[in-house]
Amino acid sequence: MIHDHDRRRRFRPSTSPAxxxxxxxxxxxxxxxxxxxxxxxxxxxxxxxxxxxxxxxSGIVFExxxxxxxxxxxxxxxxxxxxxxxxxxxxxxxxxxxxxxxxPFFARDVKDWRxxxxxxxxxxxxxxxxPLSQLEPGAYRAQAVVRLNQDTAKIGAGEGNLYGPIxxxxxxxxxxxxxxxxxxxxxxPRPFHETERIKLAERPxxxxxxxxxxxxxxxxxxxxxxxxxxxxxxxxxxxTITGFGGDHHSASRYLESPGLNYADDMVxxxxxxxxxxxxxxxxxxxxxxxxxxxxxEEFIPYLEANFPLIADPRARLLNxxxxxxxxxxxxxxxxxxxxxxxxxxxxxxxxxxxxxxVNIYREGENAYRDPEGAxxxxxxxxxxxxxxxxxxxxxEQVLGHGGQLSSFEAVFSPxxxxxxxxxxWDRKSGVIDPKTAKDWEAYDVRLVLxxxxxxxxxxxxxxxxxxxxxxxxxxxxxxVKLLKESQEQLGSDADIEIIPDKDHGNILDAKLAExxxxxxxxxxxxxxxxx
Length: 531
Known about the structure:
By secondary structure, the protein is of the alpha/beta class.
């Protein structure tokens, strides 16, 4: 489902060596429950003008300044956050929320916020786990963030977003003055660290730039093989897609981690699938644009022209984990003639009859409650449910667009009348919308295979490899089991395996990596023999 190999260890709640894959950036159900465009406080309005009612029982109100110094005099229309963390830590609150252990945070949308003005975050703002008026007593650190970058799901670390220094406070407070914050710093571009073996590949995308009406570029990290090819020699490529929250900056992990270091004699290309709505999974969609087509028509030809790659579909292999697992499988199924095989691990739901235990096609289905009325979990530790759809979605609603659940809707849903992705379920009741569920059929991997099997069967022979754990942290094994059953009924030779007692992270071990590398080598052996 989720997560980048870079961040998973930082937020690891168990001893699993590869569990979270970027939990800090699991954010937002793109919901309409955020407050309407806020009223920006006039330049001369004093802090004491805030009413006690707005402060609520906690007595806390935040006033955020957007200074004129260094501003370009353009007003801001964006979502503004106050992120909290406990005192006594070195972690900046803006890097949250860690959704396995989330700290309180609050947000509102503002329109035409002018340099020199201040805005307020008070009891009327969106808040998690509750409104600001219900903030639990404690000693906190606060940091303000303004989300400006449209092309990344990252908030506090998103290039071009604004943030400010950390301010400490204690709740409840009887002081009349608000806690004053400022957004006076810009998140700088993240430098890409090239090495002897890892190189940056970038190319403008005319296709995607035309769709969005602003410059969009392809990005990837190219990992050269351990033994450099001789001059003029070309090699097969493994196109790898990270999980949710990851990007091409995580390339070094594929050299450092025994569970990821496979196909070392090929060129590995770590693609960037980060986007403003979350993870675009390289699927063409109404909201994210023609991502798959742009990869096939623009970026792969560029890579094959500029790196030592064999320009032959049989030499293009696919791999990914979690959201990247779904992405890689989708690319192989959607473009069967363009790739020579896929190795997908712990993919996001590949059969929507088991969308993390929700059958989106079943009449009367509810995302928050199962047919017996029990809360639906979205994640577990071992066999114990740990996160639940209803509270998890509440967290995401405060964050706004760009989270895992809304990322699914951005890919699978058509646009609603407001121009946003249509929601699969009502955010208050959890009731599934059958019309939207019907639209999602176009991205149901199992259904796509079944409906197109006479054409796809010969093109996918020997190419499909899917592996997941029986105790997947995000309940993803159920959909893989259904896909396996469907493929067996179709007479497919797809290699689909559920490994007992493995979860979402610890499935990525040295044993599986060795196996994947061996199978990839066997897949390209006939091609290399003929060259």
